[in-house]
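Anyone up for a design puzzle?
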């Protein structure tokens, strides 16, 4: 195994190129190969499948969810008017039956009748309806879960982030977590970090934060280069944007290296946010929120058809918020509008045009010194509401415009083309004051101000060709394409002076003086182009193989307007992945995979040679369990992840760095999501992460990376009666545990913490009332210590009223 590993690492380009060439050679079907009707959407099946006996275990539950489980087992797609099923409960079905018999039992007593209109298509209607729907009717919705659409309930069964195709999670040989809009709504998440707080192995880079979405995963930090929206890179600067959960349909976490699909990224993983899209079903929702810290918010989501045939559909999602926060003088004000339009000129073509406008007003939060937070101070603990800036000087104003489209065209039953495009413009204006060190007595800290303007533009495009072919016993799903990202970043910054501040008895009003000359005045351009090819292979009903390779070229040019100097760095990398899954009939899916990543680095060594990209390699194996016909998914994974070419001190040239550093992370992660009964849902997760610096010329050798706990666990449960007097009630609660971490220099330990959350909601008719409490016990804890020590969010109570019609 060691020899094989060494060979793969040393000869990875040749090895993956040979495998890709072999796959390509097999990619032409025999001359007499059948194409199969609609093979692109579902495998061709002969009529014998309709009478094939299959094992079902679908519990009693709302009919729409029961039909989604039935689809997962049989591959059948349904056509029906969603409104016809409102409030209908299915009795479920258990046993070995034909699909027709199983569906008869599933619909027993519901007043719904069905008709097989194809081998894998069924039309549903009420028994008292004069006419039935057909799949050709554009007005039809209600098909099984799509990786690009809503998550049914709290448990997703499909994802596109791991393959760029709509694939069952159980068939992807890598660990994936999905958080849907229902979970975000139930937990009343206000930031991306809150949306992922019950996802194992991922932590926010800071505690309280209203300016960016940085995170740590599997021991490595990820920021803008690891954040994606609808499969496209979001920004080139971490402060350019902060996700608004209300605009999202789902958030998907792909753990481990993912450069084969996405190019440069953190080896810890990537986060892909799937936005809400137009729908043929009418959506009308208005939500009013109010709560702690003078929070006032109104949000709205509207969509539906613009024509009778449903060729034109739209959606408009918007939000307005006026709120304070747990930190004095820091607001959390936001205005967001996201219109979108989908045009389907025919059954083979769709074009979705989207735009997002966001305006944010808040302030940056620098945290506090270690002494007074994680280390004792003779004056006591610093108040978590303390503001270290000047109310009349500090600000963080961000304005964002983003627009793009998703174009898809089916050329044949087995070939389709996709092009995703987005252009974004980010304008940030902020003024901050940061602390430096304590003065005598450990009460007052010296401070320094700066004022900065950042302006970024990002253009990104991803061109894909999808093809399904047969080569003997292999069924291939091929994805090939190239993506391109062009970004510009202009920064102008002025430094200055300001008086000290007593952290225990603050007195604001100190004069702020900014220098007349710029401290920073630069313009940076970033260009990256990548070519990739991936083959998902199915061998019979059980084996799934995944093979992929990608070549990237990245160029960064920075012009310093103060000095007139321009530095240019060009880097390239080949990355690959290979994996296998075996699907047992009982729902067990053991898997193993090898994946790679790269991240470009700026700067040069003592000989003026540009640094190479850092590289990441991961070996992962695990098992997924998704009993067919049930709402449950359990994933157990074990991995070894190594990052190489890490910058470390040059022992021969003081003040320079060399790329001989290395960080290794090993761990185990468990995630379980299950509807234990029709009324009870449980989400649970645990992560053990053993990460350390394995090669370094500095004092950090052998240290644990920042913000990486050995242990992290969470559990969330919900009780939602589906019948009786309590129908419409949802009671939920959870607890989160994060083990101790270390500060940036690994000289101090950040203590572990527990946090509990709860919610209750009641829906009657078109109205829903909800109450959410985060950090019920109001624990005061430090969430992370990096360049400062950051408190976690204080107890927050939010009441909401939702009207849907």
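Challenge accepted. My sequence:
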């Amino acid at each position: 195994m060691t020899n094989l590993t060494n060979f793969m690492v040393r000869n990875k380009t040749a090895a993956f190129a040979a495998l890709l060439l072999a796959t390509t050679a097999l990619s032409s079907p025999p001359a007499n190969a059948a194409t199969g009707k609609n093979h692109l959407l579902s495998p061709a099946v002969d009529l014998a499948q309709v009478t094939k006996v299959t094992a079902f275990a679908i519990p009693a539950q709302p009919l729409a969810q029961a039909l989604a489980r039935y689809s997962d087992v049989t591959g059948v797609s349904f056509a029906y008017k969603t409104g016809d099923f409102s409030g209908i409960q299915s009795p479920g079905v258990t046993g070995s039956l034909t699909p027709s018999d199983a569906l008869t039992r599933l619909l027993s007593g519901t007043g719904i009748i069905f008709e097989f209109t194809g081998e894998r298509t069924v039309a549903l209607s009420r028994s008292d309806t004069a006419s039935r729907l057909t799949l050709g009717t554009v007005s039809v919705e209600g098909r099984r879960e799509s990786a690009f659409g809503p998550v049914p309930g709290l448990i997703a069964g499909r994802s596109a982030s791991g393959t760029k195709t709509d694939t069952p999670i159980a068939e992807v040989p890598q660990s994936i977590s999905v958080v849907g809009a229902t979970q975000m709504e139930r937990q009343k998440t206000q930031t991306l970090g809150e949306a992922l707080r019950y996802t194992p192995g991922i932590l926010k880079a800071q505690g309280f934060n209203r300016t960016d979405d940085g995170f740590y995963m599997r021991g490595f930090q990820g920021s803008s280069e690891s954040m994606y929206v609808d499969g496209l890179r979001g920004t080139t600067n971490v402060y350019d944007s902060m996700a608004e959960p209300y605009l999202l349909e789902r958030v998907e976490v792909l753990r481990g290296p993912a450069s084969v699909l996405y190019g440069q990224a953190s080896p810890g993983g990537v986060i892909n946010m799937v936005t809400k899209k137009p729908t043929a079903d009418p959506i009308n929702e208005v939500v009013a929120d109010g709560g702690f810290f003078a929070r006032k918010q109104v949000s709205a989501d509207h969509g539906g058809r613009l024509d009778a045939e449903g060729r034109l559909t739209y959606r408009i999602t918007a939000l307005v918020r006026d709120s304070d926060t747990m930190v004095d003088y820091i607001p959390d004000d936001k205005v967001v509008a996201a219109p979108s339009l989908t045009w389907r000129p025919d059954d083979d073509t769709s074009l979705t045009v989207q735009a997002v406008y966001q305006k944010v007003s808040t302030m940056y939060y620098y945290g506090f010194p270690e002494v007074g937070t994680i280390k004792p101070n003779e004056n006591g603990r610093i108040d978590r509401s303390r503001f270290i800036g000047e109310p009349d000087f500090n600000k963080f104003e961000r304005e964002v415009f983003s627009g793009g489209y998703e174009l898809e065209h089916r050329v044949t039953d087995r070939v389709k083309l996709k092009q995703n495009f987005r252009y974004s413009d980010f304008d940030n204006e902020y003024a901050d004051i940061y602390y430096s060190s304590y003065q005598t007595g450990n009460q007052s800290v010296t401070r320094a101000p700066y004022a900065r303007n950042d302006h970024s533009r990002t253009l990104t495009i991803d061109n894909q060709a999808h093809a399904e072919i047969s080569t003997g016993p292999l069924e291939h799903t091929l994805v090939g394409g190239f993506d391109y990202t062009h970004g510009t970043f202009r920064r102008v910054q002025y430094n200055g002076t300001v008086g000290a501040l007593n952290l225990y008895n603050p007195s604001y009003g100190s004069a702020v003086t900014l220098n007349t000359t710029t401290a920073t005045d630069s313009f940076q351009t970033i260009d990256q182009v990548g070519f990739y090819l991936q083959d998902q292979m199915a061998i019979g009903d059980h084996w799934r193989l995944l093979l992929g390779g990608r070549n990237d070229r990245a160029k960064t040019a920075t012009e310093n307007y103060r000095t007139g100097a321009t530095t240019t760095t060009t880097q390239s990398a080949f990355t690959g992945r290979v994996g296998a899954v075996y699907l047992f009939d009982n729902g067990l899916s053991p898997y193993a995979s090898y994946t790679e990543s790269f991240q470009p680095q700026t700067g040069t060594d003592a000989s003026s040679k540009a640094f190479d990209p850092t590289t990441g390699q991961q070996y992962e194996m695990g098992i997924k369990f998704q009993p067919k016909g049930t709402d449950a998914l359990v994933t157990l994974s074990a991995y070894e992840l190594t990052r190489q070419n890490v910058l470390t001190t040059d022992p021969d040239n003081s003040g320079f760095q060399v790329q001989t550093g290395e960080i290794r992370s090993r761990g185990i992660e468990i995630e379980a999501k299950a509807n234990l009964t029709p009324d009870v849902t449980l989400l649970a997760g645990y992560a053990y992460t053993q990460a350390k610096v394995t090669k370094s010329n500095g004092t950090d050798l052998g240290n644990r990376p920042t913000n990486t706990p050995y242990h992290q666990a969470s559990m969330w449960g919900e009780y939602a009666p589906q019948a009786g007097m309590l129908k419409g009630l949802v009671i939920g609660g959870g607890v989160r545990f994060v083990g101790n971490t270390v500060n940036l220099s690994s000289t101090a330990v950040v203590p572990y913490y527990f946090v509990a959350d709860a919610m209750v909601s009641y829906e009657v008719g078109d109205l829903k009332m909800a109450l959410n409490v985060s950090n019920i016990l109001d624990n005061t804890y430090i969430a992370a210590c990096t360049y400062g020590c950051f408190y976690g969010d204080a107890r927050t109570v939010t009441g909401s009223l939702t009207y849907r019609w």
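A detail worth pointing out: Helices lie at 2-10, 12-25, 63-74, 99-106, 181-186, 192-195, 259-262.
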